[in-house]
Structures are given as structure tokens and as C-alpha cells.
TrEMBL record:
Record keyword Amino-acid biosynthesis present: yes
Reactions accelerated catalytically: D-erythro-1-(imidazol-4-yl)glycerol 3-phosphate = 3-(imidazol-4-yl)-2-oxopropyl phosphate + H2O
UniProt KW keywords: Amino-acid biosynthesis, Cytoplasm, Histidine biosynthesis, Lyase
HAMAP family attached to this UniProt entry: HisB
Origin species: Caldicoprobacter faecalis
UniProt gene name: hisB
InterPro entries tied to this protein: IGPD_sf, ImidazoleglycerolP_deHydtase, ImidazoleglycerP_deHydtase_CS, Ribosomal_Su5_D2-typ_SF
SUPFAM superfamilies, A to Z: Ribosomal protein S5 domain 2-like
GO MF term set: imidazoleglycerol-phosphate dehydratase activity
Associated pathway: Amino-acid biosynthesis; L-histidine biosynthesis; L-histidine from 5-phospho-alpha-D-ribose 1-diphosphate: step 6/9
Protein name, UniProt field: Imidazoleglycerol-phosphate dehydratase
Length: 197
């Protein structure tokens, strides 16, 4: 089986981002964004999806974390789309419920070619460490827009923002793993239209 690997870079006056992803990996992660909790979430994404993931970002953290988190989402989405290639043989859909202590999150997604995000959470504490919790939505939206997936993220309940976001990222990872898994007919586009676009 050919390795499904994607690489992307983006440089602006606000950030410099490099991402490499291998969908046939072992869940290995090398993450450095300058935001500790975000690094933790991306490490979880690699570990629970089984993707090998390299993320390096230098951003204007003297302003805040917004550009760093959003731009990592952009570049990761581009690398993921490249790794998927023509999407032949993929399962396409994935859904996962993940509990973490008092919290429960659900993610359901479709590698549809159509970017859409529904993001719904209870009220979260504003910060977890140096991570602005509002930026989780920006990350998911940037990822969706670049790789063309329909993504529903719901944190059903919880009280600890760290637990709630961690459950969401774990559910996202496991849903992605389901969706990119290869079916028996690896030459078939998983759409009655014959294309995913």
C-alpha cells in the first residue's frame, strides 16, 4: 500500500507554519507551536488518529494565539487534503463519542468536498493555560475550509474546560481515523456521483 503523506507550508507576516502528516503512521507526534495546551491537543490528535504528525509554528504570540492556532488549522487542512489524494477507497464517514471524566464529546464528519462546521459547546472557561478556548472553533473551521470536510463537533456536557476540549480533540481524531480507513475496493470513489468535490 502506498503511503498517504501530505506536506504543506505557509508563511505570512504573522506566522510561519510547516506541517507533515502520514495517514499510515503510528501516532507519532513532533509538535511545537509555542502554546502548550495546543501542542497537547495536536499530540492527542496524532495519538488517537494513528497519524504521524509534524507541526512547527512560529507565530506572533506577543499579540495572542489567534493567528498561530488558525494558521496551523489552515496548513494542517492542506496537508491532510494532499495526503487523501483522489479519496478513492476511503470510508468517508466517521463518528466518535469520547468521555473524559465528567465530560462527553461527539464528533461526526464526512469527507464530502464541502466545507461546513457546526461547533457547539457549553460555556467554557476563557483560558486553559495560555490557550484561549475560543480558538478551538477557529482551528476546526480553518481545517474544514482547507480540506473540504463537513464537521460536527458537540461537547455534550462537562465542567472542566481542559477535559471538554480534550474529549473533543480525541473524538475528532478517532472520527478522522474511521473516515480515512480504506475499504476493500480501493479504486472506488465513495459517492454515487462518482466524485467528491
Amino acid at each position: 500500500m502506498n503511503q498517504r503523506i501530505g506536506k504543506a507550508e505557509r508563511r505570512s507576516s504573522e506566522t510561519s507554519v510547516k506541517v507533515e502528516i502520514n495517514l499510515e503512521g503510528q501516532g507519532l507526534a513532533r509538535i511545537d507551536t509555542g502554546i502548550g495546551f495546543f501542542d497537547h491537543m495536536l499530540t492527542i490528535l496524532a495519538g488517537h488518529s494513528g497519524f504521524d504528525l509534524l507541526v512547527e509554528c512560529r507565530g506572533d504570540l506577543n499579540v495572542d494565539g489567534h493567528h498561530t492556532v488558525e494558521d496551523v488549522g489552515i496548513v494542517l487542512g492542506r496537508a491532510f487534503a494532499q495526503a487523501l489524494g483522489d479519496k478513492k477507497g476511503i470510508s468517508r464517514y466517521g463518528t466518535s463519542f469520547v468521555p473524559m471524566d465528567e465530560s462527553l464529546a461527539m464528533v461526526s464528519l464526512d469527507i464530502s468536498g464541502r466545507p461546513y462546521l457546526h461547533y457547539e459547546t457549553p460555556q467554557l472557561a476563557l483560558m486553559v493555560g495560555s490557550f484561549d478556548t475560543q480558538l478551538a472553533e477557529e482551528f476546526f473551521r480553518a481545517f474544514c475550509n482547507q480540506c473540504g470536510i463537513t464537521l460536527h463537533v458537540r461537547i455534550l456536557y462537562g465542567s472542566n474546560a481542559h477535559h471538554m476540549l480534550e474529549a473533543a480533540f480525541k473524538a475528532f481524531a478517532r472520527a478522522l481515523r474511521q473516515a480515512v480507513a480504506l475499504e476493500k475496493d480501493v479504486d472506488k470513489i465513495p459517492s454515487t456521483k462518482g466524485i467528491i468535490d
